[in-house]
Design a protein that fits this description.
By secondary structure, this protein is α/β, with parallel strands linked by helices. It has helices at 52-59, 86-91, 109-119, 125-138, 144-148, 157-169, 187-204, 215-221, 239-244, 249-256, and strands at residues 3-18, 22-37, 41-45, 67-72, 75-76, 92-95, 175-179, 207-212, 224-229, 232-238, 260-261, 267-268, 308-311, 314-316. It has a single domain (3-328), classed as P-loop containing nucleotide triphosphate hydrolases (Rossmann fold), CATH 3.40.50. Bound molecules: adenosine-5'-triphosphate, iron/sulfur cluster and magnesium ion. Adenosine-5'-triphosphate binds at residues 14, 16, 26, 28, 46, 48-54, 213, 280.
């Protein structure tokens, strides 16, 4: 396996307005590193405001960094002028949360899916038409010819997101970054679209960065997972290993909050993560999770833990695991 995308120690700082006259800085990402091998899938999970979308934009070369760098297939794309990113823009595609605002309402579905081929000057008219139909067919917007003639307002939310997926796939990208691709789609189509994306990712062998606030979908969707809290990765490792044995108290709390079926066959929340996430403009001292952590102990409000490999392949930023015994690494509860 070779590394396709490597985000190294990325920090992103935004200036946010405070009232009319003053402003404050928000460190949306604070020293975040991820790598993605060719064909590999990585889920990034965390609550609202943890920096997921910012990281997605960093991976797509759309976000200015305050520190760190982004390397794609050996090429440093950090701060590169747009003219130098042509190849990268073809090889890396994004799928975003909102299929309503990301698709032009004045274009037909066929034109929307064809546009990236025109931008990148790929194929003649016949070849492009064939590629558009194949992409629509792959996302099961069938019959493809009929769908290509429609406008997006004639489609459901789920169908529009399929158009967005077809538009991303038509360039046969090596990297797909999907930022909460089903959160604005009606519940009945969510699982279907997620499985379709996984199937197509496997078929085409693209690397996949899947951004979600829903740790349960990460389980089905990715080989590795990174859990974010207030602009940092607090736990990362193979998905099954992390979900089977979460070692960061925040990961454990996210898993406890996963809805599970009750006897009446409705879903309910078990135990939402206690308390509100603090503002990234004013992160807590020491361990950022300490005000909400049921395991917090002496010194957690002063000492800022960094990621440490606790068991093979599983890194955790929590002071509980300093000087741990590998075999006994398990949170109670
Ligand atoms: N353009 C911006 N200007 C100022 N602050 C921003 C900007 N974009 C993001 N932020 C702030 O950076 C932090 C991280 O935002 P981000 O959108 O990456 O979080 P997220 O994890 O994607 O959240 P959500 O689940 O709500 O989509 C938040 O505090 C957000 O308010
Ligand atoms: S370092 Fe302390 S406060 Fe932070 S997650 Fe670990 S136990 Fe909780
Ligand atoms: Mg987001």
């Amino acid at each position: 396996m070779t590394t396709l995308l490597s985000v190294q120690n990325a920090s992103v700082v935004f200036r946010a307005r405070q009232g009319l006259l003053s402003s404050t800085t928000v460190r949306a990402l604070d020293g975040v590193s991820i790598t993605l091998d060719r064909g590999e899938s990585l889920s990034v999970v965390g609550e609202s405001g943890s920096g997921k979308t910012t990281l997605a934009r960093v991976g797509l070369g759309l976000q200015r960094l305050a520190a760190g760098r982004v390397v794609f297939d050996g090429l440093d794309i950090t701060g590169a002028p747009e003219g130098r990113l042509k190849g990268f823009r073809r090889r890396a595609q994004g799928i975003f949360q909102d299929p309503f605002s990301s698709l032009d309402p004045y274009m037909t579905v066929g034109q929307i899916v064809e546009e990236p081929l025109l931008i990148h000057k790929i194929g003649g008219p016949e070849e492009r038409k064939g590629a558009v139909q194949a992409a629509l067919d792959e996302v099961r917007l069938r019959p493809a010819e009929e769908t290509a003639a429609k406008f997006t307002h004639q489609l459901s939310g789920g169908q529009r997101q399929r158009v967005a997926i077809a538009r991303a796939l038509v360039l046969k990208p090596e990297l797909i970054v999907a930022d909460e691709p089903v959160s604005m789609v009606d519940a009945s189509s969510r699982a279907e679209i997620l499985y379709l994306m996984r199937e197509l990712q496997e078929k085409h062998g693209a690397a996949f960065l899947y951004i979600t606030h829903d740790i349960a979908t990460a389980y089905h969707f990715s080989q590795r997972i990174a859990v974010m809290y207030l602009g940092r990765i607090v736990e990362t490792g193979p998905t099954r290993q992390v979900i089977g044995n979460p070692l960061h108290p925040y990961t454990q709390a996210l898993l406890r909050a996963v809805p599970e079926p009750d006897p009446a066959n409705r879903t309910r929340r078990r135990a939402p993560v206690e308390g509100e996430p603090p503002s990234p403009a004013h992160p807590p001292s020491g361990c950022r999770f300490h005000p909400r952590c049921p395991y917090a102990f002496e010194g957690c409000d002063r000492e800022d833990p960094r990621l440490l490999e606790v068991v093979a392949g599983q890194e955790v930023a929590c002071r509980l695991w300093k000087g741990f015994e590998e075999e006994g690494a398990r949170l109670p509860g």
